[in-house]
Design a protein that fits this description.
The protein has about 200 residues and is α/β, with parallel strands linked by helices. Helix content is about 50%, strand content about 15%. It is built from 8 helices and 8 strands. The structure holds zinc ion (ZN).
Length: about 200
Amino acid sequence: MKLVLVGPPASGKGSQAGLLAEKFNLKHISAGDLLREEKRKGTKRGKIIQGYIDKGQFVPDEITNELVKEQMTDNCVLDGYPRNLTQAHFLESFTKIDHVFLINVSKKTIYKRLSARRSCLNCGAVYNLITNPPKEKGKCDVCGGKLYIRKDDTKEGIKERLRLYDKNTKPLLKYYKEKGILREIDGEQPIKEVFNKIVSYL
Ligand SMILES: [Zn+2]
């Protein structure tokens, strides 16, 4: 079984991917994690990735495609990939996806969830003042580092992320809808209920 999860930032798709991986014994493949891991290892490819990130640009599709393809198995859940039509066409060229779940959340909820995010300046750990607050205000539980608001999580940053998400995702969703494998899920509900809804399709 091969699943794809699509959703805007803070839709909770990462958590759902983790739960699905556990329940159905699937490999959880997060495109973001793969890119970060490659960068951390400092490989030739990692250095190229770093270059794009430093310039605040998207990593080219060819690199992300290659990283994901290397990790793909017969039973996996893809999280944050494909994020545009080019990547979806690439995926289609070598494998078949069974279900695509779109986790819908309103703009209001996205702003609310993302504005509550705090990141550690030192180790990068991420907190949420509502759902996962640090034990001590403004301080990282893991390393004691100072917590701050990432540029991505400011009002302007969120607006730009949503603009790009809409632009890239619209054609992707149309593509999967025409294939008849797109299922829309209400992501405003609690994690457990979102999960049960997804499972009901499988
Ligand atoms: Zn820390």
